[in-house]
Here is the input.
Amino acid sequence: MRDPDPRIVLGLHRSRHERRLLTGALDLGVTALDTSTNYFGFRSHQVLAQTAGDLLPKFDISTKVGYFPGPGGAEHSLNPARLHAAVEQTARDLGREPDLVFLHNPEHSLHHAAPDNRDVLAQACAALDEVTAKGLCGAWGVATWNPSPLLGLIDARAPRPSVLMIRAGLMVGSRTLDASDALTAAWGLDDGRVWGMSPFGGSTDAPVWERIDPRVFLQPGSRLSRVEAAFRVAYRLPRVGTIAVGTDEPAHLGKLIGALNGEVDEQAIHQYRSLLRHRLRSQPA
Here is the structure.
């Protein structure tokens, strides 16, 4: 087994939740799992406990609350009582308290909550802060697919998350990159407490990875593949200390670990972000 590497978290969004994936991750030194109450048809926690309950103590486990089963499928809620109950249920289903619980995509409900959306977000944060204080989880954070709606809603009096999870990588647009930076600053988080997700924008098989070469963002001499380079570059778009990445193949995970040895060309990243901003400003309103 390799030494643990805190820069990679095994994401289970589209995973089959197979035991071999978890044992393979441990062998590679990946000792963190990220899931959610709504993954795997709202059964992720139970399936993990059933198929790999003996392995779970070897992992740091992060999960998310905010989506709930509803008559028409999944529904989103920031109701503090529902969030509290969801964290309690998570601990029961996993057979242990999670190390980290994210408030999942709060922007999903906030646009319905105006003009009280600032208070709604503050109350949801307070609910997760409370369950953390009660020992139902080790810490809490916010995972947001679209950080822009959150920027004007930060209440300095409300509890602040320990970790922020946002989209990262070459598929992320300029507005989202800038909003992620602004949200990170508003909550006073350093890079080590910011996680990236979806570094390939959905799939490594997407045609885009045949049309562009992310290796232009690396220092000369890199021997990484295009996919491996895209993963390495994602740690700078925006700056994150950890990335949650999904796969069902330990071999793929191993290649991504190897990609961390690649050296990013910071000047190329800076120029790329400048070009993105210029293109955004030049677009018709």
About this structure: Residues 213 and 226 are 6 Å apart (CA to CA). Residues 8-282 form a domain with the TIM Barrel fold (CATH 3.20.20.100).
